[in-house]
Backbone:
């Protein structure tokens, strides 16, 4: 529509055609109002019944809510109108009449449960709050990519159909690929590592990952967006620095470019985190968790952190923080151990602050040790030969991390369920829409 | 590595540590050179055998090619060095020794066939030319996203695991999803359409698509990158305008930001296309193809264009061009027909110029006709109810398109095989790496 004016751009004195949805109709007797909503906002259209053509009044005031309409008319100042202006219409056209019965009320006056919202995302995203989440999500991706480029990394795309999973056969969705068994990839881990040994050296990827985890919790998805980074000649300290830069860039981008969206969500004092993210060793972390007294049983060295422990420590620290120097045995085989202590890995997690947001570390780049690692994990190194063999031809030391895109949005906005941060989430029960 | 200097940044007078790969060793007797290569370029390291410590000389000149090394030393001007400077080393450390037998020669002196290159992408991307393709690919994605944002569209991510394919059960890879049958999505088509009916109105997505096509040609992939756009209140003319803007933006981004990469690939006069892309009707297209005399049999109305026909017309037009007004029967059911002629669809293709690059059109937004379309296509509308039902609640007229990311890179750079534009391509024979 060449001649369309967005509602937000309609200025007194203009003759405009706006296009959008019939948000609300208020009939006060002699006068009636149609509120037209588009992606930029809303505008009031005034119908003076005695002074206007009956067909025009009928078209504008007897239309079902959420129908698609176009309205042509003059824009006038009107103090009492919600935006200070209104349209006096010359013509109203109903482009697509909506059913009178809506499965979800986009005005937000009637609450809908999450499942109904997810079944009707088209209507759900007509609500300012829901739309705001996804505008913010898009800004997060934009600013994260920009931060990656400022770090000198090259965007890559790695395959989602793979012959072997990153960490073996568990938690993989099997595919039938021209009669062969294949899987949907659970992480770009192995592929991004192959790229740090190439002339690219430093890479990032933002793409889908697939995990056949049986969890059904407010913070797990079976299809998620992974934000991955990997760099040659980086150790785990460098990788944490890069991680901090990227996470802060996401917050800064949103703080700077999403004022309206933050307002729609009720944030009055959204701020990007300042100062360095504290770096706690795993040992310190379990001590502090034990000291909170929140757990029934004290944690001992070697335990993974339980969800309640993460929450207790997150409350205690009160900001994003890293947990470093994990026991080697609870980190994946491709994470390098400390040179002076094989029980201690260079793996790290970023907590946000009561939930794991990022997992990373320096990688094992020495061929012999890597192959040993596969065997210790119970994996057949031959099945991963496409990956391991490249470590024989000059693989530099390297480090990196993976960041959960939806968890970043969820923790940033304080969403209660990770599904609120995905347009069409996938979980055990939900495969459609 | 905090103290690393990139080879391109080493200036005479500096004391530096460079890190990279042993690209070449030239031993001239009393003097020997090690060429160290990193992601920014190469630098010469000079060893004067009589004047230097034997261990140092040995470390720098007896190392296998493609090993990872660090070299610390003083940078000096040297006219005869390839970059005008060289390093006089104080120390050389071999970080990761490479096998003497390489499956592929990254210096490019020995040709490798595509299959060997794809099996050894880590080494293949140490070649300047291959690296250049993927740096350009990253720039294409960056500039395309920027163009989308300038067009006022919001980035979305739609699911890759779906219950039903866009165009039914053919050409889909089946997945086992917690005991249910599911598929890998062949196109975000239906999901992006759902979003134009939401408050977002105008959206884009760049992500993987999966097609179980049995083709094995130099221009088909079974996993590809789709660049998708869709906008409310757009007709097919508007969609073509947006398409032209985005494709040109990709060329302009590369022309502006990838000078070194274009040079590495031997382009001396790379230029973004100028002027409007011609818009030929299908009828005109078949007439012109017939007039070239390149086909054994004349095309008649209703024929799809054969590959040789596309080539002949591409040569004839000589630039990107659109083919519009296709017969309805050879376009998918979700493409809208012309209001005044139901035999004629609003579908369009962008040719680049001898290969289809984009396919798009105005969509059918009227519920009853859409449901009829499913039935005519032999699809069960009930299986797509998650999609069709949203058309009952105010679906605006809309249009959009899908652009093949790899084809964009392939046609831009004149690559002979689309696999050259993907790090790890997937086809019938290739599932690994």
Residues:
């Amino acid at each position: 529509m060449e001649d369309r004016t967005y509602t937000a751009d309609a200025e007194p004195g203009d003759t405009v055609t706006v296009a959008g949805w019939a948000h609300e109709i208020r009939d006060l007797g002699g006068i009636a109002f149609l509120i037209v909503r588009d992606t930029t906002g809303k505008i009031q259209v005034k119908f003076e019944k005695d002074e206007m053509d009956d067909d025009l009044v009928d078209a504008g005031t007897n239309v079902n809510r959420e129908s698609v309409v176009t309205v042509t008319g003059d824009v006038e100042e009107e103090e009492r109108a919600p935006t200070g202006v209104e349209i006096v219409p010359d013509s109203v056209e109903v482009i697509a009449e909506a059913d009178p019965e809506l499965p979800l009320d986009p005005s937000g006056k009637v609450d809908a449960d999450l499942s109904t919202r997810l079944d009707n995302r088209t209507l759900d995203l007509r609500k300012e709050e829901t739309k705001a989440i996804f505008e913010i999500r898009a800004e997060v991706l934009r600013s994260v990519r920009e931060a990656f480029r400022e770090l000198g990394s090259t965007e890559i795309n790695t395959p989602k159909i793979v012959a072997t999973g990153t960490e073996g056969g568990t938690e993989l969705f099997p595919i039938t690929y021209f009669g062969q068994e294949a899987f949907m990839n659970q992480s770009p881990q192995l592929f991004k590592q192959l790229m740090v040994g190439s002339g690219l050296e430093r890479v990032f990827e933002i793409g889908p990952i697939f995990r056949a985890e049986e969890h059904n919790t407010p913070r797990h998805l079976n299809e998620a967006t992974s934000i991955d980074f990997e760099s040659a000649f980086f150790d785990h300290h460098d990788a944490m620095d890069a991680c901090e830069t990227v996470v802060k860039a996401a917050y800064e981008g949103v703080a700077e470019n999403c004022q309206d969206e933050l307002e729609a969500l009720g944030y009055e004092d959204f701020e990007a985190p300042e100062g360095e993210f504290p770096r706690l060793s795993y040992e310190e972390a379990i001590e502090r968790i034990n000291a909170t007294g929140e757990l029934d049983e004290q944690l001992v060295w070697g335990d993974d952190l339980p969800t309640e422990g993460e929450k207790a420590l997150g409350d205690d620290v009160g900001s994003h923080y890293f947990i470093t120097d994990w026991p080697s045995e609870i980190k994946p085989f491709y994470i390098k151990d400390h040179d002076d202590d094989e029980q201690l890995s260079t793996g790290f997690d970023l907590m946000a602050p009561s939930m794991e947001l990022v997992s990373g570390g320096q990688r094992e780049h020495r061929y012999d040790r890597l192959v040993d690692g596969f065997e210790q994990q119970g994996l057949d190194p031959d099945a991963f030969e496409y990956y391991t063999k490249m470590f024989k031809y000059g693989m530099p030391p390297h480090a990196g991390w993976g960041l959960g895109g939806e968890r970043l949005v969820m923790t940033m906005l304080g969403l209660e369920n990770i599904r609120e941060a995905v347009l069409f989430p996938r979980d055990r029960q939900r495969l459609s829409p």
